């Protein structure tokens, strides 16, 4: 039995405006406090191979394996910067320029056909063969886009339960990977979308200029490798950190010289 001297307090109605404001503030704080992501890969034989740094605006891929080159991508400006530390130089490209480079062969073919159309019909074939020979001697031979396929059952490697993936180019084995969904590495959807877009662009350029070192898993899912064996290099994901990345990581050293864009095609 309730004592007579106690009364039930009346609850004031909730202020919807205050609730919305609080919810908005909490969501804003959550978005603002989302940490950056750094993926660090090591050689299976020891030592760092490369690392990927991701913020809401930037991605940096620092390759320590072969050429000492960093790739920077700025989301808001849609620019790509290639930093060559050995040559102490950098190349800055816009997204439009990248697209033009990625379709360089087609552009050249279009220009040639327009010029050939001005010649008499009986001279076009001979001139076409001659011009194609000159172009082929200047441009590297393009390679086919790599194909990816899941193989075998899930495996446990370096602390991750991952899906084996085989990479082939024109039917020939060209790499082995073990991948996990990006969310398992605390990568946000926004960060992964940026990564996927950059990898797609790199793949196009690599194929266009005869390189076979790109990685793009778009055809098999939203995944990230935790192990790879490609181009005689075996590496694994050794560390994932979510601490803030300093803006200086995405700047070009002041003493580096700006280089011209590859080829005179733009």
Secondary structure tally, helices: 5
Q: What order do the SSEs take from the amino end to the carboxyl end, as H and E?
A: HEEEEEEHHHEEEEHEEE
Strand % is 25-35%
> How many domains?
2
| Shape designation | globular
Contiguous runs where pLDDT drops below 50 for at least 5 residues: 1-33
Please outline the major beta sheet: 13 strands, mixed
Query: Could you say which structural class the secondary elements and strand pairing correspond to?
Result: alpha+beta
Rg computed from alpha carbons, rounded to a whole number of angstroms: 26 Å
Instruction: Please tell me the overall pLDDT.
Output: 78
Helix content class: 25-40%
Write the layout of secondary structure elements.
Elements: H1 16-32, E1 37-43, E2 48-54, E3 58-63, E4 69-74, E5 79-84, E6 89-94, H2 95-102, H3 104-116, H4 121-138, E7 147-150, E8 155-157, E9 160-169, E10 172-181, H5 189-208, E11 223-230, E12 233-241, E13 257-258
Parallel strand pairs: 6-13
Antiparallel strand pairs: 1-2, 1-12, 2-3, 3-4, 4-5, 5-6, 7-9, 8-9, 9-10, 10-11, 11-12
Helix pairs in contact: 2-5, 3-4
Kindly summarize this structure in a few lines.
The chain is 29% helix and 32% strand. With 266 residues, it is of the alpha+beta class. The radius of gyration is 26 Å and the shape is globular.
